[in-house]
Structure formats: C-alpha cells, structure tokens
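Memo to structure team: turn this sequence into structure tokens by end of day. - J.P.
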Amino acid sequence: MKRKIGDYELLPYSLALLAMLMVAFPNLLLIGIICIVIALINVYRAKGLQFRFSWLNSFFVLFYLAYLVGVIYTSNEEWAYRYLEYKLSFIIFPILFSFIQGNKKELIRIPILGLILGVCIVIIIGVFNAFDCYYAGGQFCFYSTGISPVHHPTYFSVYMLFGSVAIWYGFINKWNSYKLYWIIPFTAVAILFHYLCLSLAGILFLTLVIGISIIVLIKRRFGMRAAFFLILFFPILTYFLILKIPVIEGEWNGAKWYADRYIENPGEFVSSRSESMSGSEARLVMWTVAYQQFVDQPLGVGTGNVDEALSKKLFEFNQQEFAHKNLNPHNQFLQTAVEIGVIGLLLLLGVIFYSVFYSIKNRNWLLLLLIGSLAFNSLFESMLQRQSGIVFYTFWICLLASTLVSEKSKIKAQE
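Reply from structure team:
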C-alpha cells in the first residue's frame, strides 16, 4: 500500500537538516542538499513525482542566467566564476522544489524547527564568543559581530525574526510540538539578540512587523476605527522608543544628521567625507557612487566587476583612500543594477513583486513576511551577495511558495 507524501519521514527531516545547517554550520550545506536529493529519490520510488516549474522559479533561474551572461563582458573572470558558484542556489532550489507542490504541512512544520535549532546553536556560540572576548579584555564584546560571530548581524536578525514569526504561526495553526512553554522564551531571547546585533535595518523591520501585528489584532478585536487611531499613534511611539534606547538613539541621530547634510549637496557630501567614516556615511557615499555608475553603464559592468568599477568611480569623487576598501553598494538593488544592468534589476524586482502577488493571492503570510524582509533589508545591505542571504532566501521562498497554501486556496484549486 502506497503511503501519502506527508507520511514520508525522510523528506521533511532532510529539509530541516538543511535549514539548520545554513544557519549554524554553513560550510556543511552540501550535506543537506545531498540528503534532500536522496529523500526525493525515495519519494519517486514509492509514489512518483510531478515536476511543475512555476513563474517564481523561472524568475530565479533567469536571474542566474543574467549573471551568467554578465561573465561575457566582465574584466574580472576569477571573481565572476566565484559569484556564479555562490549563486548556484538560484538554480538548485527552484529545480528541487519544483518536485514539491501542494499543501503539505509537514514539509514546513519540521524545517521551521530545524531553523529554530540552528538559531539556538548560533545564539549559544555567540554567547560563548562574547564572554571569551570579554575575559580577553576586548571591548563591545556583547554587541554586533561579538554576539553574532557566524553571520553578519543583519542576516542573523533576519533568521531570528523569521523563525520567531514562523513558530507563532505554527502555534496559531495548532501544529504539533509548537507549544508556548518554549515559543515564549525563544521569542524573548530573539528580540533581545535583535537589539544586541545592532543592525539598524533589522531593528526597524522588527519594529515594523510588531506594529503591523498589533494593528491587525486591534482591528480584529475592536474594529477599524481603533486600528486607524493606532496607525496614527504608532510612529510617535516608535520614535519615542528609539530615543529611550541610548545605543539605537546614537545610530538614529547619526543617520538623520548625515541624511540632512547629504540632501543639501550630495556631490559635496561624498567628496568631503574622510577615510574614517561611520556606517551611515559609508552607505550614502556608496549609494551615490553606485547610482552614478549605473547611469553611466545601464547594461552593467559585468559579473564580479562591481568592486573594481566602484573603486574607479570613487577616485572621481576624490575618495582615494576609501576606494581601496572595495566596499559593495550596501544596497542589493543598486548592486544588481551596477553588476548586470537594468535587465538584472527587473528580474530581481520580478522575484519580489511576483512573490508578493502570490503570497497575498494564496494568503501565504510567511512568504509575504520573508519577501518583505528581503525587500526591506536590501535597501541597506547587498543581501544576495553573501551565501548567508542567497541560500536562506532562495531556500525558504521556494519552499514556502511550493508547499504552504491556505485551505481557502486549496478548496478553490479543487473546484
């Protein structure tokens, strides 16, 4: 007698293994991918598989092909081929998850637990690293990279937020093993570590998610009028909270001051910056330089050639010392536009907007949260330039798009 796909233990646990490895032990990703392939072969032998290549998967593959074309006109072939290797997830996961479709709760429930396990491991590593740094006489050991040694703090903030929302989603939907006795402590620790990571983008997005969640709850309980007044009050409350947290207040005031100076005269602002810039200054400089480079070469400078192109542009702005640091634009949209041009930018926007459309249409709220996280954080970081972002976002977007469909959508599909 054939078992249903949801009864296969190997596939959901192989997905959970990869979800854990990409967070806690990113160097072991290949093991997780091999396990998923073996699990799919096992399913094929027992029942057979159907292959369905969705529009979302197509956008990812075309995005990778744009980088492949960019190799043709790059002047840095070594880095170009290295980036192609980094971005193989744009091909691997869309193909793998094209064999997984439908409303299969187990294929989401268990991988989310794998993600939570990975986050817990990184938190433990971060705590040990912070105390080791502290006893060695280091400074700022319990903040930023001191508390997040495995990944850049912004990426770790993404993992924690997505994991926290996902487990509450599982609790609301009464998934097995999703109990308040561990969900509440994990959420509290995750929020604490959000602030310790000192990622301004991560903190802002966390605040945005909490605010929207409260507004939705108020609307359901007290009606639209109460929600409307809360919408008006929420920005004031957010600003007040920012001013009451000293570390965040410093980041906020610094960013605001630099933004004001930048708006007055962008060119002069960029040219007058000293070598020892703050993070906010560096972003404004790199955004300006990247935008100018994109205007000069709208078809892109070629895969892996962004650092060299931006360094040359920085010399034009009298930033000789800064040019040698080879910084990226700290904005994924500008990064893509500079590297593979307007076509690549349109494909990236295609991934985001189609995911938003698909998630709203199917009431797929976890996918909406995830794609919102990608879009928001990409304004401040090149989120798809590191394996930490490429693997995580591609894996979860493809998995959620292929498996997590609401009951309403399922009934409609059956009709």
